[in-house]
Design brief:
Blueprint lengths: L1 E5 L10 E8 L2 E2 L1 H9 L3 H7 L10 E5 L8 E9 L5 H15 L6 E4 L11 H16 L18 E5 L6 H26 L7 H15 L2 E5 L1 H7 L2 H7 L7 E8 L8 E5 L1 E5 L19 H15 L5 E11 L10 E4 L5 E4 L6 H12 L6 E6 L3 H7 L4 E5 L2 H14 L3 E3 L17 E2 L7 H10 L7 E5 L5 E2 L5 E2 L4 H14 L7
Parallel strand pairs: 1-7, 2-5, 2-6, 6-7, 10-12, 10-15, 11-12, 14-18, 15-19, 16-17
Antiparallel strand pairs: 2-3, 4-5, 8-9, 9-12, 13-14, 16-19, 20-21
Helix pairs in contact: 3-4, 4-5, 5-9, 6-9, 8-10, 9-14, 10-13, 12-14
This protein binds ligand BES, manganese (II) ion and zinc ion.
Length: 503
């Protein structure tokens, strides 16, 4: 999709469709009012007839509006004007492009960007419009043999800005929005790809491709390398699989040589059957999404490289399958992690922390400014927060705050949970330094507690994306979250050099 910004009045636009907002009840937005005037009251008359009263989610496509050079006008319900929030703006934008994607319009001009969203400037509105539109038009149909894409498709979205001086920021916003949207698309594609195609080897190949494209240093550690490093926890998970494990490392150097990098560590379980502690059959297919943390790292690094952010970033993706097998981990097995700490594997389905703990230890060698790990770690997080917020746990509050701010700005939100010491004892083991599970209570927190034992030597945050990385049900599919949050975090850090986070 092509996006451009333009300033100019709607009655002069020669476009396939002009998109304007209508508030509840039947209150025309400023631009809708403007075209109503030139058309001799045509818009107002249609709205008064009762076809659209402005409720969120409503759209009405109009043809042949008098005195307008544009072929169509799309009215979009925006809800109450006073309640036009971030999410209403995003929903209205998504609704508009989905309503128009199958019409004959190949180019549309949206004036939704001129609506007031509390606390948001034109930059935010344009960038969100790009991200939301790309996301709404996303399809994953490359594995369907019959394409149902026979219409003339929407090719170009013109985003209206009120003033000429908004054009510069608008173009900048399109740039950022496109890079983020591409990162999100990559994460979604990899997530949606099934486990038989998206294996650890495939993930590693994709990383190498991205590396070539952007001139990144890419290293893939093989099983033998892991053995040499003593990554007994990671290796124990992969023993149950015929697919060789990979530890994928991408290094982006946009900052000064030697400047401490941000390290992103993403769980890359390309299929999680649970191992010997096998999962129930229902919805087990969704465990192909258990590599979404890793995919979000690839998406974020790609976007950062595309934007040429002036910081250093390292992406680390431990990748494996978790399957039952004669050689798989058994409940009660004790493994030695790279850190030297021993772990009693009481439940083989708590495998994410086993592959992540060795990746976190490996991260130490980069002397990171911060480490953020991203993982579909616990079903408990889905119970606690549902699909709207990712869980956040951290050993450094300024870092947690920065991540929270990035989440708010991008509407890719988090909710912080406590990492209090009291929870640590749930991991006590009779036979090893720790157990890999902490019982039914506070499952997301004890998962993070486990990881925290491998994050003692740096400032660290953990994002549990079990509820946010993919949608279940009729719209099943990867969301690409938290790529927007991660990229925003990196952008913010590049802007202020993370100064206030170093305290
Ligand atoms: N990948 C799962 C977590 C998960 C489950 C994410 C359902 C989304 C939906 C993870 O590896 C896992 O199985 N976790 C266990 C941990 C438990 C054994 C302590 C869980 O959540 O049940
Ligand atoms: Mn599991
Ligand atoms: Zn898992």
């Amino acid at each position: 999709m092509e996006f451009i910004v333009k300033s100019g009045t709607p009655e002069k636009q020669r476009s396939g469709c002009i998109v304007v907002g209508v508030f509840e009840s039947r209150k025309l937005s400023a631009v809708a009012h403007q075209i109503d005037e030139v058309s001799g009251g045509a818009i107002g008359a249609i709205v008064r007839r009762g076809d659209l009263d402005g409720k969120p989610g409503q759209t009405l496509l109009l043809h042949n509006i008098p005195n307008l050079p544009s072929e169509r006008v799309l009215l979009v319900g925006c809800g109450k004007e006073k309640e036009f929030t971030d999410s209403r703006y995003r929903d209205a934008t998504a609704k508009a492009v989905t309503a128009l994607k199958d019409t004959g319009a190949t180019e549309i001009t949206s004036y939704l960007t001129e609506l007031d969203v509390k606390g948001r400037d034109i930059f935010w509105k344009v960038r969100q419009a790009v991200e939301v539109s790309e996301s709404a038009l996303y399809r994953f149909d490359k594995l369907k043999t019959k394409s149902n894409n026979n219409r003339r498709a929407l090719r170009r979205v013109v985003l209206a800005v009120p003033k000429r001086s908004d054009l510069g920021p608008g173009e900048q916003a399109i740039n950022e929005g496109r890079a983020i949207a591409e990162g999100v698309r990559l994460a979604r594609d990899l997530g949606n790809l099934p486990g038989n195609l998206c294996t650890p080897t495939y993930l590693a190949e994709q990383a190498v491709e991205i590396g070539k494209l952007y001139g990144l240093k890419t290293t893939v550690l093989e099983k033998a390398d892991m053995q040499q490093l003593g990554m007994g926890a990671l290796l124990s998970v992969s023993r149950g699989s015929r697919q060789p494990p990979k530890l994928i490392v991408l290094e982006y150097q946009g900052g000064k040589a030697g400047e401490a990098p941000v390290v992103l560590v993403g769980k890359g379980l390309t299929f999680d059957a649970g191992g010997i502690s096998i999962k129930p059959a229902a919805n087990m297919d969704e465990m192909k999404f258990d590599m979404c943390g890793g995919a979000s790292v690839l998406g974020a690094v790609k976007a950062a490289a595309e934007l040429k952010l002036p910081i250093n970033i390292v992406g680390i993706i431990p990748s494996s399958e978790n399957l039952p097998d004669g050689d798989a981990n058994k409940p009660g097995d004790i493994v030695t992690s790279m850190s030297g700490q021993t772990v009693e594997v009481l439940n083989t389905d708590a495998e994410g922390r086993l592959i992540l703990c060795d990746a976190l230890t490996y991260a130490e060698r980069y002397k990171p400014a911060f480490v953020i790990d991203i993982a579909t770690l616990t079903g408990a997080c889905v119970i606690a927060l549902g699909a709207h917020a990712s869980g956040l746990l951290a050993n450094h509050d300024p870092l947690a705050r920065e991540i929270g701010n990035a989440g708010k700005y991008t509407y890719d939100r988090i909710w912080q949970m406590p990492l209090w010491d009291e929870y640590q004892k749930q991991l006590d083991s009779n036979f090893a330094d720790m157990a890999n599970v902490g019982g039914r209570e506070a499952g997301t927190i004890t998962g993070a507690c486990f990881l925290s034992r491998y994050a003692k030597n740096f400032k660290w945050a953990h994002l549990d994306i079990a509820g946010t990385a993919w949608k279940t049900g009729k719209e099943k599919g990867a969301t690409g979250r938290p790529v927007p949050l991660l990229v925003q975090f990196l952008i913010n850090r590049a802007r202020k050099d993370g100064a206030d986070m170093d305290t």
